[in-house]
Amino acid sequence: MSLTQVEGVPGAPWQRRLAGRLDELVVESELLAGNPLGDSARRPLYVYLPPGYGESGRRYPVIYVIQGFTGQVDMWLGRSAFEPTMVERVDDLFSGVGVRRAIVVFVDAWTSYGGSQFINSIATGPYMDYLCDEVVPFVDERYATAADRDRRGIAGKSSGGYGAMVVPMLRPDVFGGFASHAGDALFEVCCLPAFREVVRTLRDHFSGSYDVFFEDFRRRVAEGARFDYELYGQPLEMYAYAACYSPDGSSPGKALLPFELDTGRIVGEVWEQWLSWDPVRLAPRHLDALKSMRVIYLDAGNRDEPFLDLGAQAFSNELRKGGIDHTFELFAGGHGGIAYRYPGALKVLADALAA
């Protein structure tokens, strides 16, 4: 008996051989250099090319996929039990007969606060500009893309779903369609209830201080300790959002909080800054951009724990009031474990953007 080394990939249920190709690139951003958090300007960028790419000289629509809060682009390669990875799901989709094929680009906009919400902020960095003015032209220059906003879409879940809604409203010159899975929206429903929990956590474990919180959090990260979401998750998430929606102009890398740290009482003027970034409030101010979209797809689970199903419904209502055609699907499920929903949305985008 002997063990023999063989060439190639092991195959399902482990790594599968792709019918298409995944280019795992590393890029250096001028826009992210010197950002207030000192986060690296060198980022991974994954580009999926469908089967048949390069054979006929054709040009493809492009769908940009962005990640949720605390997400890093390499997480798309991770596997849950008995499930394909995200890249394998994409490959399975575009390997099908009669499916309109697209290039899919996985973008990393992580920050040391856990995320950027894919918008520009003086506290985190110009992540919307990084996506729109660096990543998109980079991909168009190097791949056989149909380099036109009408052939370009964006998709994401949770904070990625937020970015997928907001970026096309603010940059309709770049994106002509989007899909949002349980994207952050209707902030009084999804964010406001968390403020009281954050106040208690800071009071009971971190002397009521974000300085103490971050000192402890960064020490544990440096030690490689397990990320305890139960303890660190909500305070980190709410501060990260504040860094995006209400940055402190007098202190680089810092945020103004929309609540008092000892009581959770709302700080009205800061909370108004947050609400100005809510997709539900942005939609009526950007109806022309939304009307220009070739396709809009929304979905959410009917048991979504942060109640982002209600946010999706509220955003859908604003689209309907504006006479904007779109798809909204409410399905049985929560906030997690919904990666199986992504291929359906990508197909909707690819069909519309390739037409």
What does this structure look like?
The protein has 355 residues and is α/β, with parallel strands linked by helices. The protein folds into 2 domains: 241 residues, Alpha/Beta hydrolase fold, catalytic domain (Rossmann fold, 3-Layer(aba) Sandwich); 87 residues, no CATH class. It contains 12 helices and 10 strands. Strand 9, helix 11 and strand 10 form a beta-alpha-beta unit. The longest helix has 17 residues. The model has no long low-confidence stretch (mean pLDDT 97).
Assembly state of the chains shown: single chain
Helicity, in percent? 25-40%
Alpha-beta content class: alpha/beta
The second-level CATH architecture of the largest domain is: 3-Layer(aba) Sandwich
Shape verdict: globular
Instruction: Report strand %.
Output: 5-15%
Our measurement of the CA-to-CA distance between the termini, rounded to an integer number of angstroms, reads 57 Å
Largest sheet: 8 strands, mixed
Quick one: how many beta strands? 10
Mean pLDDT: 97
User: What is the level 1 CATH name of the largest domain?
Assistant: Alpha Beta
| CATH topology name of the largest domain | Rossmann fold
Low-confidence runs: none
Count of discrete alpha- or pi-helical segments spanning 4 or more residues: 12
Radius of gyration over alpha carbons? 21 Å
Q: Name the CATH superfamily classification of the largest domain.
A: Alpha/Beta hydrolase fold, catalytic domain
SSE ordering? EEEHEEEHEHEHHHHHHHEHEH
Strand ordering within the main sheet: 1-2-4-3-7-8-9-10
